[in-house]
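re: that complex we talked abt at group meeting.

here r the seqs, copy pasted straight from the sheet so there may be weird spacing, ignore it
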Amino acid sequence: MKKSLRSIARLHCKNNIVLQIRNASQVLPQFSSLKYKIERKNFGVVDSSDVGFFKSILDEQRVLTDENDILPYNIDWLKSCRGQSKLVLKPKTTKEVSKILKHCNERRLAVCPQGGNTGIAGGSVPVFDEIILNLALMNKVINLDDVSGSLVCEAGCVLENLDNYVRDRGLIMPLDLGAKGICQIGGNVSTNAGGLRLLRYGNLHGSILGIEAVKADGTVIDCLKSLKKDNTGYHLKHLFIGSEGTLGLVTKVAIHCHVQPNAINLGFFGIKNFGNILTLYQRAKSNLGEILSVFEMADFDSINSTIRNLNLRNPIADYPFYVLMETHGSNEAHDHEKLMKFLSNEVETGLILDGTVTSEPAKIQSIFKIREGIASAGFQEGYVLIYDVTMPLKNYYDLVPMLKKRIGDKALQVYGFGHIGDGNLHITIVVPEYNKEVISLIEPYVFEEVSKVNGSISAEHGIGIRKPQYIHYSKDQSALQLMRDLKKLMDPNGILNPYKVLPDL
Amino acid sequence: MKKSLRSIARLHCKNNIVLQIRNASQVLPQFSSLKYKIERKNFGVVDSSDVGFFKSILDEQRVLTDENDILPYNIDWLKSCRGQSKLVLKPKTTKEVSKILKHCNERRLAVCPQGGNTGIAGGSVPVFDEIILNLALMNKVINLDDVSGSLVCEAGCVLENLDNYVRDRGLIMPLDLGAKGICQIGGNVSTNAGGLRLLRYGNLHGSILGIEAVKADGTVIDCLKSLKKDNTGYHLKHLFIGSEGTLGLVTKVAIHCHVQPNAINLGFFGIKNFGNILTLYQRAKSNLGEILSVFEMADFDSINSTIRNLNLRNPIADYPFYVLMETHGSNEAHDHEKLMKFLSNEVETGLILDGTVTSEPAKIQSIFKIREGIASAGFQEGYVLIYDVTMPLKNYYDLVPMLKKRIGDKALQVYGFGHIGDGNLHITIVVPEYNKEVISLIEPYVFEEVSKVNGSISAEHGIGIRKPQYIHYSKDQSALQLMRDLKKLMDPNGILNPYKVLPDL
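got the structure back, here u go
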């Protein structure tokens, strides 16, 4: 079954750089069930009466059954996972979601919740014939309190749209991701997305004020308070943050937005070695303190591959490592002074070999384009494997040279980049084509090495379908048992996003 | 059974202003079981073989059975709750906690976990004969990574001790409470304590990196990772944050500490009316942005009662309202300039009627003493009722005049103060003595009013024993049911902190 990927491209290729797809002549990805050797569980099979029921609660055009229409929803952004769903439902209200799930639960029909489908762990596409519950039409802003900064909105709102909305009112969203033009806030919450500015604005467990979610049986759990302090009983909303749609489906979100900074500066620097990046980071933290909003690193190959494949321009010369540093502050003159003092110092110490600093929005955007392009740059050259891990800072970059040595010339590229501020390293490995032998060199090796230094085998992209069998490298048996107990409690029939997150016993 | 409160004073009165106790000639508080009309549940009764078992795993002096020794552990800080425990256990290790809980679970013996015992909802003292598991001896720092700012420590560490420890290494704890000299980090986590600087450093769901907790059956749940990003399965640690020891006992904590600010400024201002406080807050947020760390309000009676009862000095004249504002920044000159510009503007606009600003540590401390003293000031004058609610900012202060009018001259004092930055209002009502008639004027009235504006009936002090019957004002039935389901899952025999948090069906 060879098909063009053009229909997928239509769904994915908005104006966002991360969504460059590979050559349209490539074949469709292998079915996930075959690739990951998964057996279908004993769920019900959708029949015409189910479709009839769904059409009775949604209008017809929100019940997709045509194979071509459904194809893009079956394939993930990395084009490494492919499901076999025959039904996509696009609810517009929580009530519709509740009715759908109640029916599915009674009929034991499995469901795959789907947001912007920009994850890299295959969590947002089905494995077999799960019904895809796509939240894209639940995209309304419900309320914004611009004094307290509380935004309440539906789960299908695209992150960038929300950011534009709150910026018009003097605020910014507390998270920013490369995929912001497509990813949805419900998906961000369900995967506990981190992104570039976690260093400054914290994680979603801190920023999310309230959640409305629907349990597998259709019960609506309303924890949609938009208060900054609310200690009334168990903090249920956190059950839905990062559980990848396996405990409930997030339908609405209340989130704390910060005051938009008056001054933004971006610097891009060449650095001699990784040790110097760590020293620079520590000095930036103590000298720039409260205005430091982004501190990213990328090695030479990351930047080189990106500028080459995406036709971008490196604003400085070639260096072994690069640092991208941003400040957000309330006073332009103060921020500039702090930054200049810090930079001139560090140029003198030799930590910064060369660099450029700008506060011009167009230049800022063009430098960020390089950073945001790294994730998808490799797609131009071959089959891309991405690893997303957290490492203690002193070991942060170790894995890249170790993998280079281990894989040798079987890989076209092995490069590392990521968020120094939170220890999150992304490793991209480009191989000529999908190749089990190469993968067996990498997995579980990479997870073993992460585990040895008490890192995390999934920093911000979750477990999805790609890592359940490796989760024990990051979670011990009692924690896994508690996860299983929670799953059984919240979704006794196991219909929500099956085959994901939890390993088989 | 009338006893002097001196032994309680010995336990509580360290050097912290919040722990002023009432006149030692006062009688002991009424038993909570009588006050709140609670019936003992069908738990086992501790016998000599249980005590023998506990002595076999702890040394003798960590098993308290003497009535006088136990008394202070049975009474809460507000002196409004009193339990009837006959056994206090003081474990030093997680293994000991695990063995104790396993035994208690098998024998159906109820347990009351206890940290610093500084809450106001009666959550940390028993109701009947629950065994008190006091964590004070689990007070070791395990590790501090001063590059990433991750502190790992045992649950019984006193917050102020931790803050002193990390300050010596250039960091600060992300939370600061009036009770810091006594409260323990495990209790802070279990009650999701907020405090003064939540505005700047966020809440504990954001700051806590990892938790080790022991379930009712003795199983140790190890989620003690000290990573800033870790999306490997369910985020179990959040089950233990704010569940007041009813789902598990927190034994170790990993927490993110921030860089210690180079410059600290504190201002104390007189304000004409509450509306002006809100306008000032909004302007402070946009002009001081990233350096604003505290924005507190107090009405005239709060400050007046405090300086009168605690023999303090008001650094400015009498005003209807006061604002306490702090900045934390990396550059003294910049912060000073920002602050002076902001203040001279707002003096000119008339929002600030008068004020004082200081960066001298001794002066900062003396002004903070006034703010921190408000909570306990009323103890000198009578029986104190404290309400801790979150309100939408526009309604923030409404409750205080409403309560004044409603209670009339039956109260000696009704005053309001709190954290504007997160909508958390504390209301103190001082009555000549405990009086059911007055309480019936306040409860459930105050919770009904909070509920009408979608506030929270408990902002930061939890539900404890004081509010289970009112929790429905903040949680709907499906959320309550999910809470019950979680409790049953995690603690099927209901031995952990019974009678607290969850209302009876």
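couple things i noticed - The CA atoms of residues 33 and 39 of chain B lie 7 Å apart. Chain B touches chain A through 92 residues (CB under 8 Å).
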